[in-house]
Amino acid sequence: MGPSPTTSCHFIVFSCCLLLAIFLICFSWTNPSISSTKTNTLNRIAISSPSPQHPLDPLSLEEISSVQSVLRSYPQFSFPNAFPSIHTLSLEEPPKSVVLAWKPGRTFPPRRASVIAFTSGKSHVMTVDINSRKVLLHEIVTSVSGYPMLTPEDLATAAFIPFSNSTFLDSLISRGIDPSDITCAPLPSGWFGPLEESRRLMKIQCYSHKDTINFYMKPVEGLTALVDIDRNETLHIWGIGRKIPINSDPDTDYRYEVQKEKGTPSSCKVNPILMIQPKGPSFEVGGKHLIKWAGWEMHVRPDARAGVIISQVKVTDPETGKYRQVMYKGMASELFVPYMDPTDAWYFKTYLDAGEYGFGIQAMPLDRLNDCPTGAYFMDGVFARADGQPYLRSDMVCVFERYDGDVAWRHAEGPTTGKHVREVRPKISLVIRMAASVGNYDYIIDWEFQTDGLIRIKVSASGMLMVKGTTYENMNQVPEEEDLYGTLITENVIGIVHDHYINFYLDMDVDGSNNSFVNVHLVNQETNEGVSPRKSYLKVKKQVAKTEKDAQIKLKLYDPSEFHVVNPSRINTIGNPSGYRIVPGGTAASLLDSHDPPQMRAAFTNNQIWVTPYNRREQWAAGLLTCQSKGDDTLAKWTEKDRPIENRDIVLWYTLGFHHVPCQEDYPIMPTVSASFDIKPVNFFKKNPILRAAPYSKDDFLTLRSQAFA
Ligand SMILES: *[C@@H]1O[C@H](CO)[C@@H](O)[C@H](O)[C@H]1NC(C)=O
Ligand SMILES: *[C@@H]1O[C@H](CO)[C@@H](O)[C@H](O)[C@H]1NC(C)=O
Ligand SMILES: *[C@@H]1O[C@H](CO)[C@@H](O)[C@H](O)[C@H]1NC(C)=O
């Protein structure tokens, strides 16, 4: 939801060097032997596979390079026409039927790249076949509004544009700000009508980094430049907020090296804790992307837009020892982060982070000690720059086992029954994690797999609030009728109220592709008079959704339902259909007017659950081209067709949300808040699938001392 800031003005030269340095680092990583050496030495499970091993493996550095060279020699893009900028260059998944039919050892389906390029105001959607070096498809998009995802190069260019405008510089100087003290953030401007169409626009706002790394807490309030990022023009400057001082708090820096020098020592002293696995991790990695653990198998790949894509999730049935399908594909499809301040410098802050910034592009390398525990396996992301050149984002995803002291199941008998029994199983799970730093906010996405067949999807937010400068230093100065649009969190700083919504695309394939969505409605049933001392009970009424509109769910506490995805042709031995259910969590709902432009663009938040028939073209809940889109290519539009969804290949979309009314503790950096929802087996297994799991015994840890402290 925020900027990818760039240091400006006097720092231009420095910043350019920095950018160059980053690219140089990227170049040095383009040698796969370097990266595999690194993997070998730092991971317990060492894997190196220069070429793809699975049809869904992401494009390798070599494959991206060869797509780049195909595009360079493509007649429509070569001299005298300009080479376009490349906004997406990623694996084009083979058709689902082909992937499902593929088995290791068989010939590989053709490797293809899906490309979105942009030139002369037009978006080009292309498919490039890597082996034949041919462009198989080339469409210029005219049917829907919007522009492709911003490239990191777009963001870097945009932030500098106002610095060649004297009005902008004068405005800074008249506020007493040295332009070399500021860092500017390029922000998507959203879409608010015809004046903002037919060119790529961003809004630039700035912060002071004087004496702190945490410039986000020191906004230069109100000063906003509207820029055309293709023509490098400043179109408009709002010089409002001149009287608002910059936050002068000397204690905003969150780095340990700074904080450890300050005041009284932290009372938060906890001895270091390590996760110790005397026999090593119990997951295996096939190739680089296929994870096997405790009966589970899933394919994991980093993606520039979605962050992480989990595919072909299968779980072993303890009765047969065979894999059963659960989900074909799951990913974060879109985010929506609207700020609740309608004034000039704030109304447009209604971010769609995946489609605008690229959730994967913004995912920085994970910290090997503090982001993921010991024993974690790290996966690199391989992405393309705007010129089509590949680069490597190291340690972007981590995979690890978790034991946090919880119980998987237990029972103990009290003395009255005379049965001396205490049976407990520790709860262990497998976590696949990435963290995207979308400007000020950090989002941690965990896919957690439990041994009992449950999948938990957790979203956590940390990082910095997006704050507003104010003249107020105390609430007693604020007139009662004045709406601050947020909370005064320190002198001269307001944390603006906002929401976060994260939509997950879940292509469920429970025991096969044809599934149905069942609303297991819980209703109050009155008893007949004289039949029971009870007046009422809860009764289950199952409704199978026939079409898309039957499956648009707004959650209601006093009208509850369970939501099952079942396979109507897999009826088990006692007559129930095999299923998995979505257990909602993080249930904030958008309260914006449905005709508010941001709400139209993010109309996927109109319901918490939607179900659609599988369609390759429908993957991004706010549309393929999200920047400045008008909401004409969203989940809400597609489902207007009200297509049949019963006993079909269906996709379930779940939106997890948070309302965020900021508080003082969110300053100057927020403690992490989390919410999650579950995908849980329902009549899928014959009985508790971990009935035969063994408890720990002391013998399991005999080797501990020698190994852990060697
Ligand atoms: C805009 O600025 C960028 C970076 O300085 C430059 O590469 C690009 O050519 C410029 N575009 C125009 C139209 O001047
Ligand atoms: C500076 O920005 C203003 C918009 O406030 C614009 O009218 C003017 O043309 C710009 N000047 C230059 C040199 O780009
Ligand atoms: C799934 O359902 C579709 C539509 O009813 C049908 O055409 C298809 O054959 C079914 N597939 C399987 C594997 O049963």
Descriptive overview:
This is Amine oxidase. It holds the Pfam family Cu_amine_oxidN3. Belongs to the copper/topaquinone oxidase family. Its EC number is 1.4.3.-. It comes from Rhynchospora breviuscula. The chain has 710 residues and is mainly beta. The protein folds into 3 domains: 143 residues, Nuclear Transport Factor 2, Chain: A, CATH 3.10.450.40; 100 residues, Nuclear Transport Factor 2, Chain: A, CATH 3.10.450.40; 396 residues, Copper amine oxidase, catalytic domain (Beta-galactosidase, Chain A, domain 5, Distorted Sandwich). It has 11 helices and 31 strands. The strands form 4 sheets. It has a 19-stranded antiparallel sheet that branches. A hairpin with a 3-residue loop joins strand 10 and strand 11. It starts with 5 loop residues before the first strand and ends with a helix. Bound molecules: 2-acetamido-2-deoxy-beta-D-glucopyranose (NAG) (3 copies). The site of one 2-acetamido-2-deoxy-beta-D-glucopyranose (NAG) has 3 residues, from loops.
